[in-house]
Known about the structure:
The protein has three helices and ten strands; from the N terminus they run E-E-H-E-H-E-E-E-H-E-E-E-E. It is an alpha/beta fold.
Amino acid sequence: MDIIQVKDKMFSPFIKSDQIEQAVQNIADQMNVELEDKNPLFIVVLNGAFMFASDLFKKITIECELSFVKLSSYVGTQTTSTVRELIGLDRVLKGRTVVVVEDIIDTGITMAHTVPLLHQLEAEDVKIATLLFKPAAFQKDFKIDYIGIKIPNDFIIGYGLDYDGQGRNLPEIYKIVE
């Protein structure tokens, strides 16, 4: 892994694929125990969480369902502090255990917007799973049930995460070179 350029920014290697794979396995193992007999509905937040979700669901052994929503709060390398719901949910949540699957939680703005909506739709329980978590950037007060890797507050790309639409296809995670 060498320094790469994506658009006008340089990125250096940060998290290797074997570390990502181990974090995904750890989350799956925890879910397979804690959510057994719950038949949870997993809601994957697109676009960023698609790679994480794909690898995660290969390791989920319990009965479950899957759906997708598309939310966004980023422009370039900065959060906009406003969540735009782009594609809505098409499942009945009443009485269900719902697990929101995110690629990364930094400020927490997206989940602070999303979790109350899921409760309004009468989900019995809402859990949050994220591959990456930035404790130093977190501004909200909610529980994150499944965390793969805690990272510093660096801008990152790869493994589903992008910079203005680019870099999602990288199999490993890179951080911006300041």
